[in-house]
Design brief:
The complex is a heterodimer of chains A (582) and B (410). Chain A is mostly beta strands and 582 residues long. Chain A contains three helices and 27 strands. In chain A, a hairpin with a 2-residue loop joins β13 and β14. In chain B, 31% of the residues lie in helices and 0% in strands. Classes of the chains: A mainly beta (582), B mainly alpha (410).
Chain lengths: 582, 410
């Protein structure tokens, strides 16, 4: 459709030219022509249906009314998004406009955990009615997510994630002559308290400096935030970052935020680090990106050593769907980890990841802030996962979608213990082989059935003299660490899924069975020791949306009876949540 | 594994990477077709004189000078098949092929920019009007027409003289010399049927705009940037009862396919489902390896995962604070997590710090039951799997009993 911007009518140029030629002919007819007219056509005349009229080539409007042409239905201009009703707006915008100035989500929930008493004694204690665990434990929780961008100040954005827990104080048991003891919960959790904490809360400004300085892409973020470097670090501090096309860099400093605990007396760390990434693709045409990262942790408390972590990664991406990454990480200037990863993709839904990771004995123990073992003479503060032993883990993961309805994924991994024969092997760094996979077939538009399997075979050291004879009430020697732990486990699961749409109604039913095998470290002729355990469980969850803003969900988890916990019949949990989004 | 070779491997691979921008290999030469790259040094008008077929004037200009004169004076060769249907010894023995050749090999206007033509504000500011899709692709009973040179001439003819626009004689303004074969891809193939004339208005009578389906055309800088309408763009209307009758749902195969095949493919593929469905690439594998996709386009994640801010940088925590891995079931904390932590402690450390572990492991385990009883009864559990014991208790703790040095020994 052609619309003239000015007030001049848009007359067809062909008609205009015809009119002009007619006028010329009328004026020239009385006088004899000095030269014979040239009737040779030197160019193709504009088509008759020309309806456009350039402003620069304005021709006097025709004196006669052009013949009426059949009206062609032209599309109307689309209405502005804000003029649509809420339902259409949601459909058109997908599900949510992430560029909205303010968006938030509130979730409130209620959960009940429980374990039904079986009336039987546990394996390690006689029947203890009323004091082994709570029959039920209920607590409430809530989450709030709030994000804001461009409100009041164009360059300012903010994000806040809050968490609320409200739980009853744990029950205690007081036996005559004994101190009150806390009754253990049926399912252990990290929290047994009412809390209100800010998981994340930051404000960020960017594009606030004059452009002539070339720092338009500089951003400054302050507050409680996560830093993704050699470690996913929760930091209460400041981040300064420059996100350029060729190079990006960041520097941060602040205090490490220890999640899920209120006891911070000995866990204070000052964290500082930086990142520099250079994309050679845009610099010299090589499809390589080099990233260097550093992180230093300085402890406030005594007996906690400082540490310095550095990481170098090189991404080679010769093709859009093929990436090879090499990564080195050091701890206190000693090589701690190497990683080689190949990622390949074909048509969005077929993916493959091959990865080789090697850890050295100089690596951290649990996380980058814990690099030394506990002093065995003091009260134990951490779990003992044994020394860090060199290990190589090779893994392969692949998945595809056949006919857009058959979803397949397979994975395998092999871990090798590289510690020498003169080093005591650990049960926590054992060699293993793992194989798993899953399939999901969508039978109808709303239903899908799936199955999964996973097995892991661990390598354990055989006891030199065979199983240790166990005589009741006589202390027997402990087996070496490398001989302990499960030999293998195999898990098989099935699931059924129903969905009427991502924000309508969906339900999920999952069941699984798991068999674990243990090595025969002790032998008791009179009371055979089980070497395997079989259990199962399942979960059913329903999620329903009321309109486009309110979501209700319920989930019920339960297990079968557990061989090693005969005092209960099962674990169970009911979780109800309500989420509102804007 | 010689770990230090990692960098060497990557560096070697980088050195072997061909530089971007290198010319694509020349296509196989077909003697029966005019190769524009081989005629690149000749002005377009030298051969294309008006609308007539090049060579129609007694084989001029093809037989001029040193070009193909020898071919025309000698015995007939396959060169004749460029214009004639076959090679014959007798003059005028073989009829001419149709011209212009309307097949998949036709040179497309590779430099034509839909974006420039559909940038209404820019076009108006320059020439005083703007154009829309139907100005070049007029709707008719047979559907939108494919524009020819006459359509372009309406604005680009010399006598129109639009300021700043290329002239029709400037062939290179639209047709770029390229050694790449241009293959026109058929979008409607096999048993699919689609009729533009039935997509003028929807059930409510509202006009269906071109850009409703051709969503990226207005941003295509070149012909190669044109993206065919995705099936997902059909679903928005075909799943909306207000816009499409129920019998035309995408899950009904006959809506678009002439016949229904009774195989797995007869189930409506995922991209035939409403936009609110789970995206096509959200496969089982995606649950494990989505970090790169999330890093590249966090705003896409935030569209559905409303706890996310949509901030393009560093947004993993916004989801992972609330969405736990699938294997973190009700028995995870009590029974399963130990073996996983032993197998891959790096996986734990991505989300958890050591304090998270100790917050539970400092508590007296449920298995220890009543104070005073576990000392004598723990063997039942320990002899099945002693590793949970040594996770907290060292040899020094156990030794007094197990070596006979402790008064607590039974």
């Amino acid at each position: 459709m052609t619309r003239a911007r000015t007030g001049a009518p848009a007359a067809p140029a062909a008609l205009a030219m015809v009119a002009a030629l007619a006028a010329q002919t009328a004026h020239a007819e009385p006088e004899p022509a000095a030269h014979p007219p040239s009737l040779k056509v030197t160019h193709e005349p504009p088509p008759r249906h020309l309806r456009m009229r350039p402003r620069a080539a304005a021709v006097p409007p025709p004196t006669t009314t052009p013949p009426s042409r059949p009206a062609i239905p032209m599309p109307a201009a689309p209405p502005r998004l804000s003029e649509l009703d809420a339902r259409d707006r949601d459909e058109l915008a997908g599900l949510r406009d992430v560029l909205a100035p303010v968006s938030f989500s509130i979730t409130v929930g209620y959960q009940v955990d429980g374990a039904r008493p079986s009336g039987r004694a546990s394996l390690d204690a006689p029947l203890q009615v009323g004091r082994d665990y709570d029959a039920l434990r209920a607590y409430g929780f809530g989450e709030l997510f709030f994000s804001m961008r461009g409100v009041a100040v164009d360059s300012l954005s903010a994000y806040i994630a809050l968490r609320l827990d409200a739980t009853a104080p744990p029950d205690v048991f007081s036996a005559p002559g004994q101190p009150a003891t806390r009754i253990a919960p049926p399912i252990p959790t990290w929290f047994e308290r009412s809390t209100f904490e800010a998981r994340t809360g930051w404000a960020e400004v960017k594009d606030f400096l004059p452009r002539r300085l070339g720092l338009r892409k500089l951003r400054v973020r302050g507050g409680s935030q996560y830093i993704y470097g050699p470690w996913v670090l929760h930091l209460d501090g400041v981040l300064v970052a420059y996100d350029g096309d060729i190079a990006s860099a960041s520097a941060y400093v602040g205090g490490r935020h220890a999640d899920y605990t209120t006891d911070l007396t000995a866990e204070r760390y000052l964290a500082a680090g930086g990142t520099l990434r250079v994309d050679l693709r845009k610099l010299v045409g090589l499809p390589i990106a080099i990233t260097g990262e550093t992180l230093s942790l300085t402890s406030y408390a005594a007996d906690q050593p400082d540490s310095a972590h550095r990481q170098l990664a090189i991404d080679w991406q010769p093709h859009r769907d093929l990436t090879l990454t090499g990564q080195l990480r050091t701890l206190d200037d000693k090589l701690a980890s190497e990683r080689l990863q190949l990622r390949a993709r074909y048509s969005d839904v077929t993916n493959l990841v091959f990865e080789v990771v090697r850890r050295f004995d100089t690596d951290w123990r649990w996380d980058p802030s814990l690099i030394v073992a506990d002093d065995p003479t003091v009260a134990r503060r951490y779990l003992d996962l044994g020394p860090v032993l060199p290990q190589v883990v090779t893994s392969l993961r692949a998945g595809t979608l056949i006919a857009e309805n058959v979803d397949l994924v397979a994975r395998g991994a092999i871990a090798a213990d590289l510690s020498g024969s003169d080093v005591a092997r650990s049960s926590f760094s054992a060699a293993y082989a793992e194989l798993g996979g899953a399939v999901e077939v969508r039978l109808r538009r709303t239903f899908a059935l799936g199955a999964s399997a996973l097995t892991r075979q661990n390598s354990r050291v055989d006891l030199p003299g065979g199983p240790i004879p166990d005589v009741r009430l006589v202390a027997q020697p402990l087996p070496p660490s490398a001989a302990t732990g499960e030999l293998s486990f195999t898990e098989i699961g099935a699931r059924a899924r129903m969905s009427l749409g991502a924000r309508r109604l969906s339900a999920l039913l999952e069941v699984y069975g798991r068999r674990t095998r243990y090595p025969a470290l002790y032998i008791d002729p009179t009371n055979p020791i089980p070497t395997s355990e079989l259990r199962g469980g399942g979960r059913i969850s329903v999620e329903a949306w009321i309109g486009k803003r309110l979501k209700l969900s319920a989930a019920y988890d339960a297990t079968t009876a557990i061989d090693l916990t005969p005092e209960i019949t099962l674990y169970k949990s009911l979780r109800l949540t309500m989420t509102g989004t804007y | 594994m010689p770990g230090h070779l990692v960098i060497a491997v990557v560096a070697l691979a980088a050195a072997c990477t061909p530089q971007h921008g290198a010319d694509a290999p020349q296509p196989a030469h077909d003697a029966t077709r005019i190769s524009h790259p081989q005629h690149a040094r000749i002005a377009c008008e030298a051969c294309h004189r008006g609308a007539a077929r090049p060579g129609s004037d007694e084989h001029r200009p093809c037989d001029d000078g040193a070009c193909h004169r020898a071919d025309f004076l000698g015995a007939p060769t396959r060169l004749c098949e460029v214009c004639h249907v076959r090679v014959t010894a007798a003059p005028l023995g073989a009829p001419l092929k149709p011209y212009p050749v309307e097949d998949a090999w036709q040179a497309e206007p590779s430099r034509f920019s839909h974006r420039r033509h559909l940038d209404s504000a820019a076009v108006e500011s320059r020439v005083g009007f703007h154009v829309t899709c139907t100005d070049c692709h007029p709707r008719s009973d047979a559907g939108p027409a494919r524009p020819d040179h006459a359509a372009c001439a309406r604005c680009h003819a010399p006598e129109v003289a639009l300021a700043g626009s290329p002239r029709m004689a400037d062939c290179a303004a639209c047709h770029a010399q390229s050694s790449r074969l241009r293959v026109r891809r058929r979008l409607i193939r096999d048993d699919l049927h689609f009729d533009h004339t039935r997509h003028k208005i929807d059930r409510r009578g509202a006009t269906i705009r071109c850009e409703d389906c051709h969503t990226q055309t207005a941003s295509a800088d070149e012909y190669g940037d044109l993206v065919a309408p995705r099936v997902e763009s059909c679903v928005g209307c075909h799943d909306d009862s207000d816009r499409t009758p129920g019998v035309m749902r995408m899950r009904i195969c006959e809506t678009c396919h002439r016949q229904r095949t009774e195989t797995l493919t007869s189930i409506a593929p995922r991209n035939h489902l409403p936009l609110t469905e789970r995206p096509l690439d959200h496969t089982l594998k995606f649950r494990r390896d989505h970090a790169v996709a999330a890093e590249q386009n966090a705003a896409r994640c935030a569209t559905c995962h409303t706890q996310m801010s949509g901030n393009p940088q560093q947004a993993c925590d916004e989801c992972h604070q609330t969405m736990v891995p699938a294997d973190h079931r009700i028995t995870w904390r009590e029974l399963d997590h130990g073996s996983e932590a032993a197998a891959d402690r790096e996986r734990c450390a991505r989300c958890h710090v050591v304090e998270f572990c100790t917050s539970c492991h400092r508590q007296r385990p449920l298995s220890h039951g009543m104070v005073g009883t576990f000392t004598t009864e723990h063997a039942h559990l320990a002899r099945i799997d002693i590793r949970p014991c040594v996770a907290c208790h060292s040899e020094s703790f156990c030794a007094p009993c197990h070596t006979g040095q402790s008064p607590r020994r039974p």
